Amino acid sequence: MPERRRIGILGGTFDPIHSGHMDVATAAQRTLGLSHVYVITASVPPHRAQPSASSFHRFAMTAIALAGLDGWIASDVELRMPAPSYTSNTLKTFHEQGYDPDELFFVIGADAFAEIGAWRDYPHILDASHFAVVSRPGHSVKGLAERLPALAPRMTQRPAGDVGHTATWIFLIDATTADVSSSAIRRARAASESIAGMVPAGVQQHIEQHGLYMPMPPERRALDARPAAAAGRLHEQESADHVD
Fold first, then answer.
1. How far is CA 166 from the centre of its chain?
2. Can you tell me the distance from the alpha carbon of 219 to that of 125, in angstroms, rounded to the nearest whole number?
3. CB-based contacts of 40: which residues, under 8 Å, 6+ apart?
4. By CB neighbour count within 10 A (0-12 exposed, 13-18 middle, 19+ buried), where does 189 fall?
5. Which domains does the chain have, with CATH numbers?
6. pLDDT value at 1 more than 50
7. CA distance readout (Å), 200 to 45, 175, 214, 238, 241
8. Reduced to 3 states, what is the DSSP secondary structure of residue 82?
9. Structure confidence by residue, pLDDT tens digits, 149-202
10. How far is residue 122 CA from its own chain's centroid?
11. What residues have CB less than 8 Å from 12, skipping those under 6 apart?
12. What angle do the packed helices 55-66 and 201-209 form, to 10 degrees?
């Protein structure tokens, strides 16, 4: 019987992608032996406000963050879908590409996984993929079994190779990840503070080069309110312009 593939999937708004995102995915890759990690930029998240940066910028920053990382792939699969973005639809696209649920590992922070009960298609979504849940500052995986007792029987800290292939599991990974958030980065930029170390260096350069997350002067707001066809500027390009 051929060895099962191990494909990681990390989704997010990535407004912007930051060191915490990278740490979570790295911990899952190392612990579970993932051969590839797809990092998927969401279009319009169903439970959050509209992103501050355009989908063009958010996808560009994700691609920049992954540059040079072997097996890491910036994916625009959700940008190609009708908004909003739902994880259940994303996992379905991987199934349609020939991946079995037990070959997929949806990577997520413990803080976000604690709200899994509010997700679309819950609890069936837990059968569509393994979930690789990684500790975040202030949100350890150690408390998840108590917080989500109905899911405790599916939780394990054993290596992926030790649980067999008859079901999907919730793998708990207790790792140290950077104490940073996208909202903190946006606040720092709005206050003209440095974001060095909060994002990969290339992402910081992109943010600063294009003036992302800075207060917009009135004359710029008026300019951006004009039809997008007036110019092909980077900050005006949306998902339809770049997904191909």
1. 27
2. 46
3. 9, 10, 11, 12, 75, 76, 77, 78, 90
4. buried
5. 7-173 (3.40.50.620)
6. no
7. 23, 19, 19, 23, 25
8. coil
9. 999 999 999 877 776 666 899 999 999 999 999 999 999 999 999 999 999 999
10. 19
11. 21, 39, 40, 41, 42
12. 150
Q: Which of 94, 112, 113 is nearest to 104 (CA)?
A: 94
Cα 14 to Cα 58, 63, 72, 84, distances in angstroms: 6, 11, 15, 15
Polymer length in residues for the chain? 244
| 84 CB-near residues (< 8 Å, 6+ apart) | 43, 44, 45, 46
Q: Rounded to two decimals, what is the model's pTM? A: 0.86
pLDDT digits (tens, 9 = 90+) for 13-47: 999 999 999 999 999 999 999 999 999 999 876 66
Place of tokens 């319009």: 44
Q: What integer pLDDT is reported at residue 46 of this predicted model?
A: 65
